[in-house]
Amino acid sequence: MEEARSRILKVPYNVQELAKQQVGTIPRRYIHDDVGKISDSSMLLPEIPVIDMLAIGDDNFELQRLHFACKEWGFFQVVNHGVSSFLVEKVKTEIQAFFNLPMEEKKKFERQEGDVEGYGQDVVFTEEQKLEWSDIFYMTTLPINFRKPHLFPKLPHSLRDIMEEYCKEMKSLAMIIIRQLGKALRMDEKEMRDLSNDGMQLIRMNYYPPCPEPHKTIGVSPHSDTDALTILLQLNKTDGLQVRKNDIWVPIKPLPNAFIVNIGDMMEILSNGIYRSIEHRAVVSAKQERLSLATFYIFNPVSELGPAHSLIGPNNPPIFPRFHLGKSLQDFSERKQYGKSFIDCMKVETKDDES
Fold this sequence. Notes:
Strand content: 15-25%
CATH class: Mainly Beta
Oligomer: single chain
Number of domains: 1
Number of helices: 11
């Protein structure tokens, strides 16, 4: 599908409030004709790999399992990750409390026209664009000087304090995973370190209310993440995340005390296509709300990104160009993401493509 490029609009709708009205049908603008069949979780389907972070430092076999997961799935769960379960439970409680706040309190963080950050709907560029059955809160968290003064610093004190600690833990975990990915790829350590140090972190709190017609809409449309690495925390027991594997939507069942990790487009570019950023989506439930928290880690935005020098050569030419990361991200933020649109627009045209 062609990308829509336009100014970012402010949407005067709130799905959580709409769901409270207990309507029998959803408004036309939320109906997606291309949702397709929602996978039945009772079907016998493959599961994404599980990586033991405690074992990976000393176990070459576990490192190879991570390598396989990134090549074949682009998704995996991590256990024994070292993040306090007490901290995680506090995060769950505080985010649930935020979405339970009165609307006038949440509107203090409302996304403004022309801005991608804030509370509300996902970015909308046209009056005709289909809407998604979810409310989100998206904001930059690190570096601290990149935070917008009306968002993170103004959060309710208990939420702000716990998210401050959580964001530090997520950065630490992201850096450990990225370092292990570089090791599995046999990349030059300095090259990976220069890219990943001083990167950016953003978070997205997701709220998916119960929906009277879940088969007609979508919580998050199919897409791959533009970042280097995403770490997802499921906040309650309602599942909804699905990944596309061999043209089948495979539901992900989060393990207790685990994080779901996925490779982003930047990592696919850096690995020269060895690792894959995979399309995923979120479906909604007729009876239950779902909450999740995604943490995105972006390579240093002042850096130049392209296939790692240590991974290309005469027999392995680059399939992506080199480009200034910050400028490309700015340009791409002005477009609606469909599928793997960032990767598709970055690929180098080969003679085979032209024929």
